[in-house]
Amino acid sequence: MAADRTEWAKAYARQARSDFSVYALLARNLDVETCHALHFLQMAGEKIAKAFRFRDTGTGLDALLSEHVALSVFIPSFIRSAPVLDRYRTRHGDHRGVSSLAGKLRDLARDIERLAPAVDREQSPRNVEYPWEEGGKVLVPCDYVAFPDLNGFEAGRTFLRLLEIAIQDFEEVGIH
Amino acid sequence: MRLHADSSDCAILDWRLLTFGFHSPRASIMTVKPSKDEAARSLITWHFEIEPEMTEIYRIRASNEDDPHEPIRLLEVNERSVDTGKVQVFGFRPSKEIPYPSHVAEVTPEEMQRILQRLIPLPEGWDLDRAERYPRPEAGNGGRSN
User: Fold this and answer.
1) Is-contact B65 B37, C-beta < 8 A?
2) What is the mean pLDDT of chain B?
3) CA–CA separation, A122 and B56 (whole Å)
4) A49 Cα to chain B: minimum distance (Å)
5) Residues of B contacting chain A (CB within 8 angstroms)
6) Are the CB atoms for A101 and A155 separated by under 8 Å?
7) What is the DSSP letter of A25?
8) What is the CATH number of domain B3-19+55-135?
9) pLDDT for res B84
10) Is there a contact between A101 and B80 if contact means CB atoms under 8 Å apart?
11) Distance between CA atoms of A132 and A123, rounded to whole angstroms?
């Protein structure tokens, strides 16, 4: 009998947690090139997004197993989920800022998602795993210095915090 | 903890104009490496600029802050963040504009109150007694704290 979606969901969440831990370690290690930390961030994001979609949506199993585009779909849903909205407070005491924040987060998620070599290869060949050609030159991920910088983007730190919540609180938070 | 308001702000502002242009560190034109203090203030100013609901930032100095390998530590209070009841620090590498490692934690104003009341612990090595507080600059004062 094939494994059910819940089992897949838990497995993806567990691996996402591990990937995210490695990201956190690598991001602080100055002896390791940036591409490796971002690779683990991209993988953690993809896996936790799929974990939620396995558990909380009817998205087809084959699609979830084969696609790399997941994080940019997941993040806007996640921030609008009731448990996250309950945690979210603005100075106005309501959620009126969520829509604009969700847009920023979706853009960041898309930037991270594109770091996978299979995503948007035509428009965005830059990735964290394999060399690519740009302007007649072959560029190497471990030498590349212009990857997205979450410390320099609006909502960058919030993005990481939300991802950490999604990973750590997977059992308690849903995106129904 | 002290409120940041020293007389070197003008120098920092001038350095930022030289280094980052008016708006973005991405337009860096300067080749001289800034001091760690200059880089920290620049990062703080940049985060206030890009985060519309950032209310205050604490720069926490380590006991061995002079060590260039010690990261710039920032505890940032952002109205737009989400409440988790804990302080999660994310590490960032040096960049062309901020040539020092940085560790940044973002909390909500409510979480900051609980931190000040010692109800939420800070990570090891993060001590508010060694913190400089940077409130959000008032509009029109050139990004300086008062």
Assistant:
1) no
2) 79
3) 42
4) 18
5) 25-26, 43, 46, 50-51, 53, 69, 71, 76, 78-84, 88, 90-98, 101-104, 106, 108-110
6) yes
7) H
8) 3.30.460
9) 85
10) yes
11) 12
Q: Residue A149 and residue B51: Cβ atoms within 8 Å?
A: no
| Number of Cβ within a 10 Å radius of residue B114 | 15
Rounded distance between C-alpha atoms, residue A75 and residue A67, angstroms: 16
In 3D space, the residue among B96, B89, B91 whose CA is nearest the CA of residue B75 turns out to be: B89
* Phi-psi sector, B125: left (phi>0), alpha (psi -120 to 50), beta: left
**Angstroms from B111 CA to nearest CA on chain A:** 11
ipTM: 0.79
**Looking at the whole model, is its pTM more than 0.95?**
no
Instruction: Tally A–B CB contacts below 8 A.
Output: 84
Spatial contact of B54 and B136, defined as CB atoms under 8 Å apart: yes
Task: Give residue-wise pLDDT tens across range A52-91.
Answer: 988 988 888 888 888 878 899 888 888 888 778 777 765 4
Distance between A71 CA and the closest CA of chain B, angstroms = 18
From CA A153, how far away is CA A167, in angstroms rounded? 22
